[in-house]
Design a protein that fits this description.
This is Beta-xylanase. By secondary structure, the chain is of the alpha/beta class. The protein has one domain: TIM Barrel (Alpha-Beta Barrel), CATH 3.20.20. Helix content is 40%, strand content 14%. Strands 1, 2, 3, 4, 5, 6, 7, 8, 9 and 10 form a 10-stranded parallel sheet that branches. Strand 9, helix 13 and strand 10 form a beta-alpha-beta unit. It is globular. Bound molecules: (3S,4R)-3-hydroxy-2-oxopiperidin-4-yl beta-D-xylopyranoside. (3S,4R)-3-hydroxy-2-oxopiperidin-4-yl beta-D-xylopyranoside (XIL) binds next to helix 14. (3S,4R)-3-hydroxy-2-oxopiperidin-4-yl beta-D-xylopyranoside binds next to helix 14.
Length: 370
Amino acid sequence: MRRQLFSCILLICILSACSGLPTGQQPATPQATTVQKAPHATPTHKGPKTLRDLADARHIHIGAAVNLDALQHDHDYSRVLSDEFNAVTPETAMKFDALQPQPGDYTFQQADAFVNYAHQHGMVPRGHTLVWYSALPPWLQNGSYSRDQLMYILKDYITKVVTHYKGQINVWDVVNEAVDDDTGQLSDSIWLRGIGPDYIDMAFRWAHEANPQAQLFYNDYGTEWSSKKFDGVYSLLQGLIQRGVPINGVGMQMHMHTQFYPDNATVLQNMQRFADLGLKIDITEMDVLTSETKVDMPTTLKIQADIYGTVVKDCLQIKVCQSIVFWGFTDRYTWVHSDLHRDSDQPLIFDKDYRHKPAYDAIVQALKTP
Ligand code: XIL
């Protein structure tokens, strides 16, 4: 039942009127492994401060997921990204199918280009993600392996990837989306089927062995609601801590919607409950979908702005929340178009021409609030 994100939302409305992004907005095909060089912090500082300036002043991270194709081919994308953010997450370049497309054949070029870009621009890169049910290469997804073989494959992968980026990536989403939305139990995956529930403990231990300095996170969506999902994630984390598994934090993805969003008291309460477990909380993938809105666009964008601003304020209120990453930053490139097929959605904080949306201004206000 759980597989796709926003399953409940998608059931209500799946927009598939257009076949994809307008041609002029398609990310170019990936070829080069170099990235557009953007002069960091172009001399616009007489003007309003960027999100990055405000976040630096508060000693927090404000970031965006990076579309490598856009980074390599769209100069404006690269410039706005490095001006506005001090943290970055690779949208796809560090997933299993990207890093080990054939058995034993590791391909780090794209992920290395991402990490180099981050360091050249003084940004903190996040490793995303070591263990997930999705983005697996066909040889793994369709193969038939014994428990020992799967454990070997997973340990080898985690060890090689975390070691490759040791000293360069200090925060990892180790396990991603392992809890079922409806039941709160562990959800189906090749890892659960082939290894059993302790694959999660193993993954954290192997990541810790490979880089004891790294901050290790469990990352999931839907934990901002009062739900079986929250309860399931909470008890998973509680169990990990009780067993002495090396986990430092929980990523709350925060894929949200202008039409359905949780009561803010619930969001804060859930954050506080995670914090009370002794975990850090990072907002890891925030976007706010608009395409099922029942009201006019200016009103929708105002609601969207309120949601973004409120979540940023919530994070600032909880001491252990020190990183807010959006799942993209411009409506020109978003997984909501490419993966969720909601072609007219405008989920991010810059419009498709890189103009600030009301959400951007709301985040600025939140970051300026003492
Ligand atoms: C998505 C990417 O944005 C897409 O480009 C890709 O095709 C599929 O994955 N939760 C996560 C992210 O943890 O890794 C997902 O990213 C979005 C949902």
